[in-house]
Amino acid sequence: MRILFVYPDINIKGGARSYNYGIGVISAFLKRHGHVTDLYYMYPDYNLSGLMDKISDFDPRIVAFASTSPQFSHVERILNEIHLEKDVFTVCGGAHVSCVPESLETIPRLDAICIGEGEHPLSELADALEKGKEPTDIRNLWVKVDGKVYKNPCRPFIQDLDGLPFSDREIFDYQSIIDSDFDTAFFMFSRGCPFDCTYCANHALKRLAEQKYTRLRSVDSAIEEIREVVEKYRVRAIFVCNEVFGLDKKWAFEFCDKYRESGIGLPFDVNTRVETLTEELCHKLKEAGCRRVNMGIESGNPFIRNEVLNRKMTNEQIIEAFGMAKRAGLKTKSFNIVGFPQETVERFQDTIKINQAINPDTVILAIFDPYPGTNLYNECKEKSLFSHREDGKKFIPRTDTMLELPSFSRKEIRACYRNFAFNVYRKHSLMKAILYKVYYSDYGEWLIRVLAPLKKIVRRLAMGI
Fold first, then answer.
1. pLDDT tens figures, 253-265
2. Residues 330 and 443 in one domain
3. Do 259 and 388 sit in the same domain of this protein?
4. CA 122, 128, 131 angle in degrees (round to 5)?
5. Any idea what the CATH number is for the domain that residue 230 is in?
6. Average pLDDT over every residue of 282-307
7. Longest Cα separation, the chain
8. How remote is the C-alpha of 142 from its chain's centroid?
9. N or C: which end of the chain has fewer CB within 10 A?
10. What is the per-residue pLDDT for 16?
11. Cβ-Cβ contacts under 8 Å for 232 (sequence gap 6 or more)
């Protein structure tokens, strides 16, 4: 069976190409079971003619879309405009349709959606179609036949991640992805997150199935995949994208020890959380060759962070965690968001102040994007906070707001977004502050593309790596 994945990655901030782990592992799983896969990566602009050429050349029996909430409107547009043979089966997976399965009923040319993990459902779908069977009883799939929707329950979450193949990077132009993001290869050795942040889809996704939601591959398997990738591609650094590195201290310490002993020798970055970082973990990371730890603050205002976002951490914990990392010789990066319900200009000043206090090597600020299915999205709906822009004007996700907040205007949110990094760094490093000011300006996206040949130099000045 021939399966074509379609991955829209349209109108995104920053310009770097991205790798979709879900597609990668599902593709590898399908190949293991005798199927043939390919990919159409729709980036950076909408390009239906390119997709049609790919379909004509590859002749798939299944066209499988992967979509986040910000990209789902592009999936809808593709399916409304595309011309496919009647026997081509269309399916969409990803966090958006998993949280909003009713999406299936709103798109006439979409035959099915995959809720939750897709390896086994897509393989069984391909097997059923190959044998001429109706795929109406496959767990994790909602399937539409003659207007009737067959809503199947989800199977338990996959517990043995080592039983899955390494992610398929061949169907992506993976070297171009590495090159576009400062020669960095990305790895995901975990699934799920135990925390219940109200703006994140994890609290909705963990309710989809039974058994443990937060899982890890073995360290030996992780090291083996890293070695395989760095031997095949030109790589200068790696990024371990686990949701929370250090949540399982035994796994984290073992990874650090075995990575140091492996001889791979490339610097690496990790994501972690303030509550999970310790002095011992910082020193282990540094000894292993870790370059930077990334931690989410999201809001420096305790009320917004604890009550609105359900991130139970204090400002003192945040300051201490960033201090621990710096004392160990690690660079730091903070993630922040502006434009939450109940936020004001005054409350956002606390986000500036705490970042000034910790002085991270890098800051990231995004404008709050309500994801359907999350608790905070539901609150926005209940309070009628969405503007007409929700399904009207198109904009780059996380750079504008789709909300009308009574105490925080769109104009104020966008001004906070543009000036945040400048205000954080202006007393520490005027050059860095100015570089960030340009990056977050209305002309930032254009300049990113114009200055692409110099981006590594600019990055070193702005981020210190």
1. 999 999 999 999 9
2. yes
3. yes
4. 140
5. 3.80.30.20
6. 98
7. 68
8. 24
9. C
10. 77
11. none
Residue 455 scores a pLDDT above 80: no
- Burial classification of residue 108, based on how many CB atoms lie within 10 Å of its CB (0-12 exposed, 13-18 middle, 19 or more buried): exposed
Report yes or no on 290 lying in a domain.
Answer: yes
Residues 278 and 324 grouped into a single domain: yes
Are 136 and 276 contained in the same domain?
Answer: no
Specify whether the CB–CB gap between 206 and 192 falls below 8 A: yes
What is the b/e burial string over 145-165, where b = at least 16 CB atoms within 10 angstroms of the residue's CB?
eeeeeeebebbebbeebeebb
Instruction: Name the amino acid, one letter, at 381.
Output: K
Burial of 388 (0-12, 13-18, 19+ CB in 10 A): exposed
Q: What is the pLDDT of residue 15?
A: 66
CATH code of the domain containing 73: 3.40.50.280
Task: Return d(Cα 114, Cα 142) in angstroms, integer.
Answer: 7
Closest CA to 419 of 342, 357, 338, 360: 338
29 and 78 part of one domain:
yes
Quote the CA–CA distance of 368 and 121 in Å, as a whole number: 32
Please tell me whether residues 147 and 196 are part of one structural domain: no
Residues 130-141, buried b or exposed e (16+ Cβ, 10 A)?
eeeeebbebebb
Domain assignment present for residue 171? The answer is no
Query: Of 102, 128, 151, at which residue does a domain stop?
Result: 151
Helix, strand or coil for residue 156?
A: coil
Tell me: the pLDDT tens digits for 207-253?
A: 999 999 999 999 999 999 999 999 999 999 999 999 999 999 999 99
HSE (side-chain half, CA atoms, 13 Å) at 102: 3
What are the tokens at 363? 């800051």
Domain span holding position 83: 2-151
Q: Which two tokens stand for residue 99?
A: 């949280």
| Token digits of residue 416 | 């906070």
Contact call for residues 217 and 248 (beta carbons, < 8 A): no
Within a domain: 344: yes
What is d(CA 394, CA 397) in angstroms, rounded to the nearest whole number? 9
Q: How many domains does the chain have?
A: 2
Residue owning tokens 């310490």 = 253
Q: Is residue 287 part of a domain?
A: yes
Instruction: Kindly tell me if the per-residue pLDDT of 390 is higher than 50.
Output: no
Instruction: Kindly state whether residues 205 and 272 are assigned to the same domain.
Output: yes
Instruction: Assess contact for 113 and 134: CB atoms under 8 A.
Output: no
Nearest to 186 by CA among 167, 170, 205: 167
> What span, in angstroms and rounded, lies between the C-alpha atoms of 277 and 313?
12
Same domain? For 187 and 145 the reply is no
Residue that has been written with the tokens 């600020």 in this structure: 365
Cα gap 260→263, rounded to integer Å: 6
Q: What is the DSSP string of 426-455?
A: TTT-HHHHHHHHHHTSTTHHHHHHHTGGGH
